[in-house]
Amino acid sequence: MTVQMRDLKAKDTFAVIRLAKKLGVTTSIVGLIKQQEKAKDLMAEQKALIAKSIGWQVILEKNPNSIEGKKAQTDLEAAAKRLSELETILNDESFSLITELVEMVIDNIDGFEDEIFKFLGDLCDKTKEEFAEISLLEFAETLRGFFEKPELREVFKLLTPSKQSAASTSSGTNSTNDTIVPMT
């Protein structure tokens, strides 16, 4: 049996914020959302490097001893190194933030089980009691599905000032750009 979750609605916004505050995870959720945005950028860089690597591989196979072939070999080695770095970054940072979020929820969950079951039950068209009886696997999948909801990300993005807008409004100067520039 799979638990189906409806889309979040405007009426859910305040319940989400209240639960996040009570569980002490608002900062972690915002961090996780920012990490997901960064991960999208890093994955785009990965895709671009993989596409370029295919072209470099073709050049290398056709002309291994030519100047172009040697450059392609150098580019392939640099791309492999960067792809390895990207994989490490994505794995380490995502795992760290998710672990921190889970630890905070566990530390603060006492007394909120009923609220969580009621809220998630409502999202899944179940009563609090029905939702409390779903399997542990379904519960874990429901939680993961909830945190992956795009509308949840959008709500927290709206409620969280970006570094750039916060810096420009407080100091009148531009903030630094954290964007990673893909290798060429």
**Could you tell me the radius of gyration in angstroms?**
22 Å
Biggest β-sheet strands, sense, barrel: none
Task: Estimate the helix proportion, in percent.
Answer: over 70%
| Topology, number of strands | 0
The poorly predicted ranges are 163-184
Q: Which descriptor suits the 3D outline?
A: elongated
Topology pattern, helix = H, strand = E = HHHHHHHH
Distance between the termini: 48 Å
Oligomer state of the chains in this structure: single chain
The percent range for strand residues is: under 5%
What structural class do you assign from the helix and strand content? mainly alpha
Number of helices: 8
> What do the pLDDT scores average to?
78
Question: Could you describe the 3D structure shown?
Answer:
It is built from eight helices and no strands. The protein is an all-alpha fold. It has a domain at 12-110 and 148-160. Helix 2 packs antiparallel against helix 3 (67-108). It is elongated. It starts with 12 loop residues before the first helix and ends in a 13-residue tail after the last helix.
List strands and helices in order, with pairings.
Elements: H1 13-23, H2 26-62, H3 67-108, H4 113-123, H5 128-132, H6 136-147, H7 150-159, H8 163-171
Q: TL;DR of this structure?
A:
The protein is mostly helical. It is built from eight helices and no strands.
Which tags fit this structure?
184 residues, mainly alpha, 74% helix, disordered C terminus
